[in-house]
Specification:
The structure is a homodimer of 335-residue chains.
Chain A lengths: L1 E5 L4 H13 L1 E2 L2 E2 L2 E6 L5 H4 L4 E5 L2 H8 L6 E4 L5 H6 L1 H24 L5 E8 L14 E2 L10 H18 L3 E8 L1 E2 L13 H10 L4 E3 L6 E5 L1 H13 L2 H4 L5 E2 L3 E4 H12 L1 H4 L2 E3 L3 H8 L4 E2 L2 H5 L8 H14 L1 H4 L4
Parallel strand pairs in A: 1-4, 1-6, 4-5, 6-7, 7-9, 8-16, 9-13, 10-12, 11-15
Antiparallel strand pairs in A: 2-3, 12-14
Chain lengths: 335, 335
């Protein structure tokens, strides 16, 4: 089978590609080709695999060609992140909304020509949740919590969830939307996401660098390891429609944890000297954004698919340390 | 002040325009101009008012010019109806989604140029609600019920609600979304909406014509009179942001009523001979669509704005009969 991973050179996308290549199969079929579409070039280890093909450039530019290409499955991860979307409103609409619609229309075009609908997993985000004056947000958000996005990024993710639902209802795709929790520990440099510090306060100290935590230690947040996230995306892809249940998005599993607990785990894994490289310096802008995020999430539908969060944050840190030893992009974080 | 009503030649739009012209003011300001944008020409009585200007053609074609036009307030009612959107997927996306975005972008363009954000009321719909395998729909939907649209029309309305919310958050508009209940009694001919019979079973018998009800008499549904709907749109426009509450859409008031109760009211108002012109002949397609609709709605936020549904359906029928005597388009239903 031929798969397309948009955002396939990114952190989650590349890990997903590696995991799929290692498995060799998806949905019980041999994976013969993985197309990685991304603005950036794919990591060298992926390019070295004969099954991998890359397409570099904006997703929007690739969609026209996709109208005439047989693709069996899509993991649609490409996205401008929250900070970028706040800074550049048009960029967010183009990268997240127009690109998704062009992708869905390319898949629809093939179905209108007689093809079997492609399976598609859309990576949505816990950022669809937030408080609204008329609708207080529960501290723990569930699959059935009313979304009230507080950012353009969250709005665009929610809109795309509903496009995926409608293209699925019409039979143009077999689509599913999975809401990613904050994935940590991310390698590399801080990105434009307000959640970037959730990785920074672990990654930087481990690399011998000081890190500033812009929120108080009591802040609680739903996180997930990269590997559990990737496993979640694959399980959602492989689920039958009945097991997925309906057309609305589901939450991926979350470890609900405070910053203080994250740092205690860091000390447990790497010692007090490493933990002491984190200092607290409140950033009102970031603290204000984070105050509107849920303190935790529950993922009942994902649990019914057999998906679980990491048991504890120390395991997430150990996963990151192991990654640094084996994957090239993780090492950048230790520079 | 200068107002734009998209869909301004339609049934609700024209009634809204008439009501506004009669009031003469909105938000405490004199109405100096009402622009009616619509695919169809506006009714003659509106054209005769010196304050009225019409623009005929697809909304999308008007939006470019709107970028350079000062408009103080917008009632955005233009929409392809549910049946059309199901039959022609691209039409729905273009008429409901692309047009709304182009309208919002035109308003944003002016704000970026220094203008005060225009107030905008978006007419969403009770069609955003529906059952999903993972989320059973409550029989009575409220302002905080999780939307799960069952049609492309409902999906597009929901998406536009969230665009309006985000453009508002960014300060590009002062936007509010109000979910219209099924407006009845509509004059004229049946339209492409699956809900068309909710008007037909009253309108046709009153005009001496037989009418077929495609669902069983027990079917319950949230309806509203045209006048209450128009009053709701105006109240939502005039509400302060604090009174509106948050950025999510609110439900307009509904009279929750069964088909049997509607027909009993018809008999009460017009006599048994008129009521007997309705016969029941189940249409599986329509009955299937209607089975996915809520049986009623509650409108707590609208109630807090002082809005109420009609007290009973007989009053709605009397309103229709009075309309037939005074407004030219209503008379078409009696042809």
């Amino acid at each position: 089978m031929k798969l397309l991973i948009t955002g396939g050179a990114g952190f989650v996308g590349a890990r997903l590609a590696r995991t799929l290549l290692q498995r060799g199969t998806l949905d019980g079929r041999a994976i013969t080709r993985i197309v990685l579409a991304d603005q950036a070039a794919a990591p060298a280890d992926l390019l070295a695999d004969a099954r991998v093909e890359t397409r570099v450039g904006p997703l929007l530019a690739h969609c026209e060609a996709l109208r005439d290409e047989a693709v069996d499955g899509v993991f649609h991860l490409a996205s401008a992140v929250s900070g970028e979307c706040e800074a550049d409103f048009d960029l967010g609409l183009r990268s997240n909304l127009d690109s998704t619609r062009a992708l869905l229309d390319a898949l629809r075009h093939r179905v209108n020509g007689g093809a079997t609908p492609a399976k598609l997993v859309f990576s949505s985000s816990v950022a669809v949740f937030g408080p609204d004056d008329a609708v207080p947000m529960p501290p723990i958000v569930t699959d059935t919590t009313l979304p009230a996005p507080q950012t353009s990024y969250g709005i665009q993710k929610l809109i795309c969830e509903h496009l995926v639902a409608d293209y699925t209802r019409k039979g143009y795709i077999d689509g599913r939307s999975a809401r990613l929790m904050t994935v940590t520990v991310r390698p590399g440099r801080p990105n434009g996401a307000a959640s970037s510090f959730f990785s920074g306060i672990i990654r930087e100290p481990l690399a011998g660098v000081e890190s500033v935590c812009p929120v108080s230690p009591e802040v609680s947040h739903p996180v997930s390891s990269p590997q559990r996230t990737v496993e979640g995306l694959i399980a959602v892809f492989e689920a039958s429609r009945a097991a997925y249940g309906g057309r609305l998005a589901l939450n991926l599993p979350a470890l609900n944890i405070t910053v203080a607990q994250m740092l205690a785990a860091l000390e447990e894994v790497a010692g007090p000297a490493v933990r002491e490289r984190v200092r607290f310096e409140r950033d009102e802008r970031i603290a204000g954004i984070v105050a509107n995020w849920p303190t935790g999430a529950r993922a009942d539908r994902a649990a019914a698919l057999g998906l679980k969060p990491e048991a504890n944050f120390a395991d997430i840190i150990r996963q990151y340390i192991a990654d640094c030893a084996t994957t090239p992009e993780a090492l950048k974080g230790l520079g």
